[in-house]
Amino acid sequence: MYSKKKPEDLDCGIEVSMKIFGGKWKPCLIDFINKGGSLRPSEIHRAIPTATPRVLNMQLRELESYNVVSKKIYPGLPPKVEYSLTEFGKTILPIIAMLDRWGIQHKDHVKKADETMKVLRAIR
């Protein structure tokens, strides 16, 4: 069984935040669900085509377990599922907006660094 080398410190605000934000697609999922309202998994998958459905589903389950998103299952065949933000999830929106503003402000810097890293990898 896997055990972490360093135990989690859930009294540390950054570690608590990373439980929600940690994961490549979680902030994007939160933002997209906020903008779209109640969304079916297929709509979410189409909105983030560079992520695999498996990864998105896994991260949606994690967000659901922390009560950031809620999953509603409608009866019928095939069953219909929709995700929406919870009230707790809505408390995260100012942070998502701040991340978006920071990213827009610094995108040229990051693009340049990415290009430099690609060149360095090609040389090696």
3D structure, described in words:
With 124 residues, the protein is mainly alpha-helical. It has a domain at 13-92: Winged helix-like DNA-binding domain superfamily/Winged helix DNA-binding domain (Arc Repressor Mutant, subunit A), CATH 1.10.10. The chain has six helices and two strands. Strands 1-2 form a two-stranded antiparallel sheet. Strand 1 (69-74) and strand 2 form a beta hairpin. This is Transcriptional regulator.
What is this structure's SSE topology?
Blueprint: H1 13-21, H2 26-36, H3 41-47, H4 53-65, E1 69-74, E2 80-85, H5 87-90, H6 93-123
Concise summary:
The protein is mainly alpha-helical. It has a domain at 13-92: Winged helix-like DNA-binding domain superfamily/Winged helix DNA-binding domain (Arc Repressor Mutant, subunit A, Orthogonal Bundle).
Strand order, sheet with most strands: 1-2
Find the CATH superfamily of the domain at 13-92: Winged helix-like DNA-binding domain superfamily/Winged helix DNA-binding domain
Please tell me the overall pLDDT: 91
Instruction: Give the total of beta strands.
Output: 2
The helix-strand sequence is: HHHHEEHH
Sheet/helix structural class: mainly alpha
From the spread of the alpha carbons, the general shape counts as: globular
Taking the sheet with the most strands, its summary is:
2 strands, antiparallel
| Estimated share of beta-strand residues | 5-15%
Helical region count?
Answer: 6
Low-pLDDT segments, ≥5 res: none
- CATH architecture designation of the domain at 13-92: Orthogonal Bundle
Report the CATH topology name of the domain at 13-92.
Answer: Arc Repressor Mutant, subunit A
Q: Helical proportion?
A: 55-70%
What is the CATH class name of the domain at 13-92?
Mainly Alpha
